[in-house]
Design goal:
Layout lengths: L7 H24 L9 H25 L8 H22 L7 H34 L9 H20 L14 H15 L15 H14 L5 H28 L2 H24 L1
Helix pairs in contact: 1-3, 2-3, 2-9, 3-4, 4-8, 4-9, 5-8, 6-7
């Protein structure tokens, strides 16, 4: 989700609400003569509002799991998740008057800070990384298709390499006149340098860096006849496509990896927040 002009109403609304809430908290502290606490009526109101916004933000996950529910647009839920989730932090701080005691309250505040912080980091990543992916991965593909494409690239490279490795006696083999020693050298370079970079199962071989791989192809062009150049070019293009697929996987991890922190902590925050509310009201 990119932070664009459609977020301006949410930003203005959030800042306006924050200004009003801050002013009301200042008045509340002044009237309580510095004895503001979470169990007071204003404190409970701040806490209920903050927990309500956390619940609202959490319903984004429900909305995603049940797209058949026509309850607002997905983009509207995403914007509300970001800005209302952010607003829940000052509300909870006003609820406890910036003071929290006891293990449960301390744990809740830690969870809240990490959850809101990870959400803001995630929003920044989702704003900037798609542009980075477009610039650095021109051959971007559907993420779920990457394993299948990698296997397909491996098979295609092996088939092309067989055209050079083969002596031409097999049916369907390319008829390329290559010195036997050059053929053996190509087979070794392909096996030790080129092929490991096309497979996730590299065995004992370390993947070659792009510069090393480029040097390997240059040396093969000097060694092999011109009739083999088109095959080398195709294999080199496959290597480049494989590099872009790997780059896309890394970028995709950074784009979505923050959810591994954000989602579980959000669930824990909801559950423990409900427990805290029940305990506070009962005792």
């Amino acid at each position: 989700m990119r932070i664009d002009s459609t977020h301006w109403p949410w930003l203005i609304g959030t800042l306006t609400a924050l200004s009003v809430l801050t002013a009301s908290f200042i008045v509340y502290v002044a009237l309580s003569h510095g004895h503001a606490r979470g169990g007071s009526l204003p404190g409970l109101a701040y806490g209920a509002a903050g927990y309500g916004l956390i619940l609202y933000a959490a319903f984004l996950g429900v909305r995603k799991k049940l797209p058949v529910w026509r309850i607002g647009k997905a983009q509207t839920w995403m914007r509300g998740h970001l800005w209302m989730g952010f607003l829940s932090l000052p509300l909870i701080l006003f609820h406890c008057a910036f003071t929290w005691k006891g293990p449960l309250a301390s744990l809740l505040m830690i969870l809240l800070f990490i959850t809101v912080g990870s959400g803001l980091i995630g929003a920044a990543l989702q704003h900037y990384i798609p542009g980075l992916m477009t610039r650095s991965v021109p051959m971007e593909t559907i993420y779920e298709e990457i394993p299948h494409l990698r296997r397909q690239l491996c098979a295609e490279a092996d088939e092309l390499a067989a055209g050079i490795n083969s002596s031409g006696s097999n049916e369907g083999a390319l008829q390329i006149e290559i010195d036997p020693e050059a053929r053996v050298h190509f087979a070794n370079v392909y096996k030790r340098t080129i092929r490991p970079g096309l497979s996730s199962d590299t065995g004992k071989h370390k993947k070659a860096d792009p510069e090393h791989l480029r040097s390997a192809f240059d040396s093969l062009r000097r060694l092999l006849p011109a009739s083999a150049y088109p095959i080398l070019a195709d294999i080199e293009n496959i290597c480049e496509e494989e590099r872009q697929l790997q780059r896309q996987r890394r970028i995709y991890f950074w784009l979505h990896g923050w959810l591994l922190v954000h989602v579980p902590l959000s669930i824990a925050l909801l559950v423990l927040g409900a427990i805290h509310a029940v305990m506070a009201l009962r005792y």
